Every structure is written in structure tokens, then in C-alpha cells.
Amino acid sequence: MSHEPVEFARDCEAIQIPQGITVTIPKGTSAIVTQALGDTYTLQVPSLAGLFRIADRDADAIGKEPRNIAAVSAEASSDAPVADDMVWDALREVYDPEIPVNVVDLGLIYDMRVVGRRVQVQMTLTAQGCGMGPAIAMDAKQRIESLPGVEEADVQVVWDPPWSPHMISPEGKARLGME
Fold first, then answer.
1. What is the pTM of this model?
2. Does some domain include residue 162?
3. CA 96 to CA 149: how far, in whole Å?
4. How confident is the model at residue 73 (pLDDT cuts 50, 70, 90)?
5. What is the mean pLDDT of residues 136-160?
6. Higher-scoring residue by pLDDT: 72, 17
7. Do the domain assignments include residue 123?
8. Residue 142: inside a domain, yes or no?
9. In CATH, what number is assigned to the domain containing residue 108?
């Protein structure tokens, strides 16, 4: 998506990047959509001097139709066992707001285990100094915990082994123009 100017049609909750702080962006605020991936939008808000992320459920605040990407099938039951593929699909909706590839295809997920109704994830970041680390891990945790049958998700950021571009999937490399 090219940088698209928008104006907030209503007050809207957003996450400040990279701090991960929840703020309310007031109605009438001008912004620029810099990225629309998964079920979030990343916006540059000059009057607030920073980047912010809003959820798809708030797309109407910037004149967009919600894409409902995160909608879980009505057939899914909270009584059913938690399926690995359901967790992987949720993780594929997690993005670093500066990179147009999900954390799975970036090779940032080192381990994912479903133990009963608990999900354990070990992930890394592209750089130890990445200020978005806590926000990305929290996004993963919240997406997993929103899945039917999941009672708790434990998402840990680890640094061993160190991440390298060789860990990016072929799909991710294609998206980044690395092939």
C-alpha cells in the first residue's frame, strides 16, 4: 500500500509504536496509512509525532471497511482441542509494523507448543534493539489467547540462536524482493 492520507472520523484507540502504549487519537486528526497488513493498520500521525497501530475493528475510524481477517470460524468450538494449525494461522497475522512480512515467514518463531489449553511460543526479533519487541510479543499473545479453547499463551522473546535473513521463508523473501 502506498502512503495514503486519512482523517480520523471518530476518536479511536491506538497503540503507540514502539512504546506499546494505548492512546486515543482524536476525531479530525490527520494521518498517513503506511502499512495495512494482517488485521492492523500502521499510521504516521504528524500532529502526535509518531507511528501508531490500529486494529481492523476500528478501520471505520479512518474510512476503511473492516476486513475481518481475525474472525474465527463459527464452527470452532472452545471444547475442541487447540489445533497447531490454528495457532500458526494466528501467528501469521502478527507483523512488525516496519516490515511487510509476518513473523512466521520472517523466521522469528523458533518454537510453538500446544500443551492442553496452553500455548507456549519462543520467538525472536530481527535485532535485539528492536523497540517493537514487547508490542509484537503482546500482539502474538493476544491473538493466540483469542482462539477458541486457548486459556493462556506464554510468548517469550529469546535471542539464541541469533536471527539472520537466512531464516526468512521463500514466501517472505519473495515479498521482500530477496529472490
1. 0.71
2. yes
3. 26
4. very low
5. 93
6. 17
7. yes
8. yes
9. 3.30.300.130
